[in-house]
């Protein structure tokens, strides 16, 4: 069976109608081999406007469904995902090149957020607030916000949608999803899985969940519509710089999850064996294509020669190739453009005095598939290309002598997503986590930057966009807060002691 046939079989098993992947104008290729695996019909801006209208209508009823009942839909979706985990995971491997455990891991992340959101559906708490006026009560309520536009990227094509969707649904908001054009098949799979949950649920309004597939004009229709209360967008900082101001212009709300130039510090007391394994997954896992991928490593000079040779060996020996036909830990880059950007960055680093291990193309016998050996680059200084995110498996390594320098370099980049320190010294660990330490949305000790659990709020500062998704109280981003003051007395005392007797 060739890959197109397997893809068709998986999509059919997931419940996607044949016309949705056989009769379209958008060709979908697999990065594993570069071959075409499906064609998908695309939507127009007018289709997007229609989807927004449907979502708006759905909102008028969904917002009044009790939140725990809304949670029931998410619970059913989680059940359906459990049943479809293997098929959707496999489709993820084919469509975006993930190794099987990461493909299934992404689906597990979806299941986890469903469980989390079901719990949250009974915990949309507001505060009771002490009032200064006698015979009064003050409280806050959280109400549904409105339709949510989700714009997702190729690298976590379904998990990021599910973080947003599971929370949006329990919060009372319909969703319109624009997936990456590089990953429409897994999106179709998700909608088919959701359709089964909707059927079991019974009385959800039409237009609660919408999918629009296409290019930037579709995204623009979402971003510009005053009926889309919240835009949750994941992708490059360049994209965020366009989306952010456009939504701000109409006073819409955004959750932006943009670039990361994530770094780690390896201190003298670090457990080097553990550090090596953590760095290997953080920097080479998912072929360096996570927004949380470890991209810079500051290693104390006293242990540099103990850690870096071992790391180089790991870079030289890690298995790179098609993860579905072999045991590779590093799959392909998404496309030629990603490979070219990686090569440009490496050339640039070499010019600046960088010593490169790896980085070359690995021939898997497919002209249009781009496998690259991850690159470890020893850099003399924290300057130039090191300060830019390249969405590829490149790890820049730099020696440091005192922690203040390392923390300063750490924070000296545009993005502020994820960070880590490897140390057994609690003073160093606490300093790194303190207000004067890492400036990122995620800061870890003795684990690397990627692979966050859904229970924590996910997102980052500065050019990462400032949004928070997934766990903790990220649900508040999908609701509006109303402060209510109730006078149950027979008097009318004014706040701040103001008198206004007429
Ligand atoms: C992303 O790359 O957009 O922390 C999300 C992680 C995953 C999510 C990454 N849980 O690496």
UniProtKB/TrEMBL annotation:
CDD domains: ALDH_F7_AASADH. GO terms for molecular function: aldehyde dehydrogenase (NAD+) activity. Its EC number is 1.2.1.3. The keyword Oxidoreductase applies. PROSITE patterns: ALDEHYDE_DEHYDR_GLU (PS00687). The active site is at 257. Pfam families: Aldedh (PF00171). The keyword Oxidoreductase applies. InterPro entries: Ald_DH/histidinol_DH, Ald_DH_C, Ald_DH_CS_GLU, Ald_DH_N, Aldehyde_DH_dom, ALDH7A1-like. Residues 24-481 form the Aldehyde dehydrogenase domain. Keywords: NAD, Oxidoreductase. It is an enzyme of class 1 (oxidoreductase). Homotetramer. Belongs to the aldehyde dehydrogenase family. This is aldehyde dehydrogenase (NAD(+)).
